[in-house]
Amino acid sequence: MMDFTEEQVNRYSRHILLQDVGVEGQEKISKGKVLVVGAGGLGAPVAFYLAAAGVGAIGIIDGDVVDLSNLQRQIIHFTEDVGRPKVASAKEKISRLNPDVQVTTYQTLLTAENALEIIRDYDFVVDGTDNFPVKFLINDACVMLKKPFSHGGILRFDGQTLTYVPESACYRCLFHAPPPPNAVPTCSQAGVLGAIAGMLGTIQAAEALKYLTGVGELLTNKLLTFNAKTMDFRTIKTKRSDKCPVCGAHPTITQLIDYEQAACDISDRKKH
Amino acid sequence: MAKITVNGKPQALENPTTLAQLIEQNNIIQPDMVSVQLNEEFIQRENYATTELKDGDEVDFLYFMGGGRG
Question: Per-residue pLDDT averaged across A102-128, rounded?
Answer without folding.
Answer: 97
